[in-house]
Amino acid sequence: MKRLDPRKLALGAAAPLVAILVSLLLTSVILLAAGDPVGAVWAQFFKAPLPRQIIAIVNEATVLYLSAIAVAIGFKMNLFNIGVDGQYRVASFAAAVFAGQHWLPGWLNIIVSLIVAILSGAIWAGIAGFLKVGRGVSEVISTIMLNYIATYLVAYLLKGAAVKVEGSNATSTAIIKEDSRVPGISLDGIIATPNKLYGLIVLAILVGFLYWFVLSKTRFGFDLRATGRSETAAVASGVKVKRMVLLSMVISGGAAGLVGMPLLFGQDYAYGDTVQSGLGFAGIAVALLGRNHPVGIAFAALLWGYLNQLSNGLQIGAGVSDRLVLIIQGIIVLSVVIAYELSRRAGLRLEQNRVAAELAAQRAKQQPKEVAA
Amino acid sequence: MAVELHGITKRFPGVVANKDIELSVRRGTVHAIVGENGAGKSTLMKILYGVQQPDEGTIAVNGQQLTLKSPTDAIKAGIGMVFQHFMLADNLTVRENVVLGAEKLHGIGDAASAEIRRISDAYGLDVEPDDLVADLGVGARQRIEILKVLYRGAKILILDEPTAVLVPQEVTELFNNLRELKAEGLTVMFISHKLDEVLSVADDITVIRRGTTVAEVDPKTVNARQLAELMVGSALPSPQTEESTVTDRPVLTIQGVDLAGGAGRRKVLDGIDLTIHAGEIVGIAGVEGNGQAELVEVIMGMREPTSGQVFLEGTDISDWQVREIREAGVGYIPEDRHRHGLLLESPLWENRILGHQTQAPNVKGQLIDAKSAKADTERIVKDYDVRTPSIHVTAGSLSGGNQQKLIIGREMSHAPKVLVAAHPTRGVDVGAQSSIWDLIKTARRNGLAVLLISADLEELVGLSDTIRVILRGKLSGAFDPDTVTREELGSAMTGAAGAASAAGAGTTRHTDSTSDGGTP
Q1: Does residue A201 lie in a domain region?
Q2: Does residue B86 or residue B498 have the better pLDDT?
Q3: Distance CA B341, CA B344 (A)
Q4: Residue B123: C-alpha distances to residues B108, B115, B237, B516 (Å)
Q5: Which of A70, B14, B264, B497 is most buried, by CB atoms within 10 Å?
Q6: A325/A332 Cα distance (integer angstroms)
Q7: How far apart are CA B77 and CA A164, in angstroms?
Q8: Domain presence at residue A172
Q9: How far is B337 from chain A (nearest CA, A)?
Q10: Contacts A240 to B, Cβ<8 Å
């Protein structure tokens, strides 16, 4: 038997495609029921994106990718870190405040700020990890609570840290100066747009690589995956599960801390009350769709960005609220969860049958001396 | 005939399937179905209970041919199943547990209580509807399970290894209950591999071997030995110890180990003293649940003893972690390989790493050395005769015996000094069983100290150099497997003072026990 069973691979690829098709179908039904123009809506979604939209899609996907990786680290351990949303906002705020002080020059300021972000996210997630290990509090509950606390804590601290900008009502931290910004990557010559990709897309790729490397190549990653697959077997194999829970929560939070960084250093240059929220929740959906796989998540993040960007023209193009995209995304997530579970079971059954069949064939090849009594 | 099965065949990947099963059960009898672990008894019963559908063959209940697509169909046909593992909610009362899922029959209130009392009185089940299940012992819980089935109108009861969890007095009570059910015209199908019990309670016995029915015998005309031979095939492959390889060098020493139970409970382990020498197999016999699992957990470092010490070659390892203990050379064959020994959805080569994540050839520094691990897995598959098409298939797709051979191969690949083997042949087929015995004997010959925990006295007597019996967390003195009788072991396992009457075959063994349903 070959390593990669083509039938298993096909099964793996079929699941997300089926989920996407199902969601298109169900959304059409909803549109019909509401009396909206189905054709016009899909015409809007299936338009080739404009060059500036392509940049926007990739930029959005960059941020979602980081968020989804943070969630996926938890998923690999059977931990559900719903708190990425709070973790990245706490971390973005901390990093923005630090970077805005300009204690360090240029790139050094950026790098240390990134470290500040990782640490703040890790500490915030670590609270939930500590509560789970020490007190048995479900991380689902505690991270949701911590999201609320993060919202108000940051709003409160922002008041104290805010810098008054002439002629504006917005409150925000001090603007990061020119020399501590991450320049965008221009695709001039490839596609015709002055817009640029976030420079920190490099960071997202690096995080994705580390995620793959640590999980599949290191001892630590093996322990983590073993714990996720079977906690009892992991304990018997010598994994200290409590320590793993705390560590993976902290690492997940550290990755979550980076979610806001492409925005901070590539677009907003400050943390204010207009900063984008909800990225953490979108990350859960993207991680599910991408099956916790570093490449799968990249595709899922791009799909999410694509849907978001192309929904912008819905109101004008089809007279339908752009909120429709939330319905599509919601149905994708639901169908994908079902499709994955079904394909997982089908895959296991397929393999059992294959093993039984190949063993039977092997036995038949040897002399058939053992006939059941 | 209450139940007639003809030509039942079930092809089933990974485990022993059923093939041409012929079975006739007379109404109003206790019909035992015996066979070794993995012989296909459970599959057969699942087919009869509608959990699985046969590929071929017919099922007739009370003369009527039926297709059972689900347990609901089976219940409608008057078949009820009492599973080995109880399915009761602790925090509910007996009545609530019984009516759960059958609310339509007699409601959930007084009418239901009245019906429960009626059934309980009719069959002498001694079940009180308002008791909280959490307060009840194992025997009482089993009676509730039986009552649940009767409450749903079953006339044919299937009991899957009902005595595995019971202490001897409870077994006697259960058998008395079964006789009452029989007297009332109900039919009981009783699955077991404990031959003495089968002989004492059954009216008819059907023997299953390798998935097919090989004989129907009358319990009055066979003895346990003959029955065992029918189960296993012509020659009984009893494990035979070779010449002694026991040395006087202690490898694993346990001194005065206590393990406290929950608040207000008795100790789970009570003053355990045990020494295993190089080249020695020490067998631990005992009724399940008397501290065997906890003893293993203490040795492996999954639990810390409340007091006392464990020494590995003179080093105190009582407070070591699991990983340190495994690195120090303690191999582990867990009782439940699915929960503790394998990652069922991971490929074989990753399972070869499991438990040895810090040792060569699996790792280089902090990195997993997949190439060497895979090569070594190939070696294990070859040397230990693991039947698999590839090392890339998931562990869950192998049969029980092959999973176990993989585990043993893995554990023996790290030059262990001690091998802790808990029920190493449970749920594996006969062929794998004898090769696992051979592997354990090889380990002994290579100077390992082996702790063998088993419920199979034959296995214990055949393999061990010394047998100890565990009862309520205490170890008995040493028995010599060459001279000890089953009766002596049996009485030590039950704690009966009068050794002669307490254990062994025969229906007379508990007639003197007047204890009425009290559980320890």
Answers
A1: yes
A2: B86
A3: 9
A4: 22, 12, 41, 15
A5: A70
A6: 10
A7: 80
A8: yes
A9: 8
A10: 321, 323
Structure tokens at A178: 């020119």
| pLDDT greater than 70 at residue B232 | no
Mean pLDDT of B112-123: 89
Pairwise CB contact (< 8 Å): B343 & A226 = yes
If you measure CA to CA, which chain A residue comes closest to B395? A352
Cα distance from B186 to chain A (closest Cα, Å)? 33
Q: Is the pLDDT of residue A12 over 80?
A: no
Question: Which residues contact residue A166 at a Cβ distance below 8 angstroms, ignoring those fewer than 6 apart?
Answer: none
Q: Work out whether the CA dihedral B296, B298, B299, B300 comes out positive or negative.
A: positive
B177-210 in b/e form (b: 16+ CB < 10 A) is bbeebbeeebbbbbbbbbbbbbbbbbbbbbbbbb
DSSP character at residue A312: T
pLDDT, position A2: 46
Compute the distance between CA of residue B482 and CA of residue B487 in angstroms, rounded to an integer: 14
pLDDT on residue B84: 74
Domain with CATH 3.40.50.300 in chain B: 3-232, 237-329+416-428+445-496
Answer yes or no: is A360 within a domain. no
Q: Which of A1, A4, A210, A351 to mutate to test the interface with B (most CBs of B within 10 A)?
A: A351
Which residue is it, tokens 């973790």?
A87
Strand-pair partners of B208: B35, B213
- Point out the residue among B19, B354, B397 whose CB comes nearest to the CB of A237: B354
Which of A232-236, A321-325, B110-114, B427-431 is least confident?
B427-431
Mutation target for A interface from B52, B352, B354, B429: give the one with most A CBs within 10 A: B354
pLDDT at B499 over 70: no
- Interface residues of chain A, partner chain B, Cβ below 8 Å: 1-3, 216-223, 225-226, 229-230, 232-233, 235-240, 348, 351-359, 362, 372-373
Give the residue from A195, A241, A198, A194 showing the smallest Cα distance to A77. A241
Beta carbons of A146 and A124 less than 8 angstroms apart: yes
Three-class secondary structure of residue B509 per DSSP: helix
Residue with tokens 């697959």: A229
Least CA distance to B327: which residue of chain A? A238
Within-domain flag for A91? yes
CA distances (Å), origin B228, targets B198, B199, B430, B491: 11, 11, 12, 22
Separation between Cα atoms, residue B455 and residue B468, nearest integer Å: 12
Q: Which of A3, A222, A348, A366 to mutate to test the interface with B (most CBs of B within 10 A)?
A: A222
The CA distance from A351 to the nearest CA of chain B, in Å, is 7
Range of the domain at A180: 61-286
Number of compact structural domains in chain A: 1
Mean pLDDT of A114-129: 97
Specify the pLDDT at position B502.
34
Sheet holding B330-333, edge to edge: B330-333, B418-422, B449-453, B281-285, B466-471, B474-475
Report chain A residues whose CB lies below 8 A from the CB of B344: 229-230
More reliable by pLDDT, A135 or B237: A135
CB-closest option in B334, B341, B397 to A355 = B397
For B237-329+416-428+445-496, CATH number out of 3.20.20.140, 3.40.50.150, 3.40.50.800, 3.40.50.300 equals 3.40.50.300
The pLDDT of A197-209, averaged and rounded, is: 95
Please give the helix or strand (H or E) that residue B65 lies within, else none.
strand B64-66
CA distance A90 to A80: 19
pLDDT tens, position by position, B322-355: 999 999 999 999 988 888 999 998 999 999 999 9
CATH (residue range B3-232): 3.40.50.300
User: What is the rounded CA–CA span in Å between residue B14 and residue A360?
Assistant: 11
- To the nearest whole Å, the CA of A188 is away from the closest chain B CA by 41
